[in-house]
Amino acid sequence: MNAPDHHLALLTTAQMAQADQAAVQAGISGIALMEAAGAAVASAVSARWRRQTVSILCGPGNNGGDGFVAARHLRDAGWPVRLGLLGDKALLTGDAAHHAQLWNDDIHPLTPALLDGAGLVIDALFGAGLSRPLSGAAASVIAALADRGLPVCAVDVPSGLDGNTGQVLGLVAPASITVTFFRKKPGHMLLPGRQLCGEIQVVDIGVPDTVLAALPISVFQNGPELWLQRYPWPTPDGHKYQRGHALVIGGRLMTGAARLAATACARVGAGLVSIAAPATAWSVYAGSVTSVMVYPLRESGSLDEVLSDGRINVLVVGPGAGVSDLTRMHALQALASRRAVVLDADAISVFSSDPQALFSAIAGPCVLTPHEGEFNRLFSVDGPKLDRARQAARSSGAIVVLKGADTVIAAPDGRTVINGNAPAYLATGGTGDVLAGLIAGLMAQGMEAFDAATAGVWLHGEAARLFGPGLLSEDLPGMVPRVLRRLLRHGLSR
Ligand SMILES: NC(=O)C1=CN([C@@H]2O[C@H](COP(=O)(O)OP(=O)(O)OC[C@H]3O[C@@H](n4cnc5c(N)ncnc54)[C@H](OP(=O)(O)O)[C@@H]3O)[C@@H](O)[C@H]2O)[C@@H](O)CC1
Ligand SMILES: Nc1ncnc2c1ncn2[C@@H]1O[C@H](COP(=O)(O)OP(=O)(O)O)[C@@H](O)[C@H]1O
Ligand SMILES: [K+]
Q1: Which ligand is nearest to the CA of 409?
Q2: How far is the CA of 13 from the centre of ligand 1 (A)?
């Protein structure tokens, strides 16, 4: 995360253009970059499909230029190629004009008829330069392509996909493979973009990593390389009190949620984990968790007494808590105690009528883990997911984990990570409680809040991925040791 030339860096389309320019200034020609890009597309296609008639849809910019290069390579390898261009060849400029000139073969107008008889299609209409929703001939061809369901190799992004947001501008034909250059863009990771791209291949076209040093990159793809060096593995001379004491506040009725959070917290390595619960629910908790201690709360529900234990260094409030004055009080007491805090579920929703009361109370390390519904109760921000999470982190002063298949983790200082390893099996009750516990367990062991949130989200996805179909939330904590063992064994292997 500290190194801007990290392979997990995600570049905005503007940053990618800057990287290209810097490469050109460093003496690598734009013509050579385009040659490498188009050649990579041709080899991805020939590696995946047998030789057959391929239609190549070229746009008026450099994305189209890549299409001309791919066309030449495939034709020279004996593929029947049919190339269609949006607009007039004479209007092409720069590197694209150069490579169009090298294509000494037919150029057809861009119409759906181009697809007749094609076994597969290369979509090189628009990439980083998409500036508005598809319309006219481009929209007709992409609509016909989507309708016919032909296999597609997209160049950089499927045309119509916004590389910065993963949103569709107008329409998109889903691709089987997307070949992109140098680094992924956020739109490759964010939904619906990630699904529309199919398999994503990132290829080296000769842009040196050193060009990244000059770019203010703040968005990364999640992976152990971002946080593993700071992972709090136990040390031989350690004892449990050095591994933190996490306190999960348990609800009166929905007791499963806090138990899930507490178990996950313990599994990820917190030295001690306790649940503080209303006295009336004490026996339910105490009878069902073994390594986790259970404290009965006073009648008033106040945490004052339990918080007099100075060893408690992290609190989790929200799972199964209920949207009530009591939950609100617990969240505010937790924050006022200046310990690290994870607020999830009801501890987020309970502030929906006055979010500012929550934001003003956040002074220390705090992680909010809302799903979309909870997020919208607290933050009135519109726009793409990445921007909303970043804005929310800035306005609240907390690390915001905006959950979903493409969870975004954002810090108030602008650091942002997009997660990509979570399988759809996670869409089942209680998995969010487990996530809250994992993050708290890492913070208990001294991990910085943003690292803990990022690592916790990755471990959660990986645990679910290893378990696979049939996952229940209670299966997740038990998978954590396996994930940790793999991390230890394989270290930074990707
Ligand atoms: N050296 C490099 O930089 C390298 C770049 N590479 C490749 O270049 C790609 C970026 O190229 P790019 O910047 O030329 O943009 P591109 O995506 O081709 O589109 C721009 C054109 O489309 C037009 N247009 C936009 N939206 C439209 C719409 N809805 N409907 C109709 N027209 C629309 C737009 O017109 P305008 O908006 O100006 O009216 C303009 O004419 C990148 O994705 C990668 O594939 C590789 O070769 C590696 C080296
Ligand atoms: N389709 C999906 N693919 C991947 N992960 C998902 C999907 N749906 C939900 N998740 C993940 O599952 C968890 C669900 O959390 P949450 O909605 O709080 O559930 P609960 O309140 O039941 O615990 C989150 O970590 C979320 O990112
Ligand atoms: K494209």
Answers
A1: 2
A2: 10
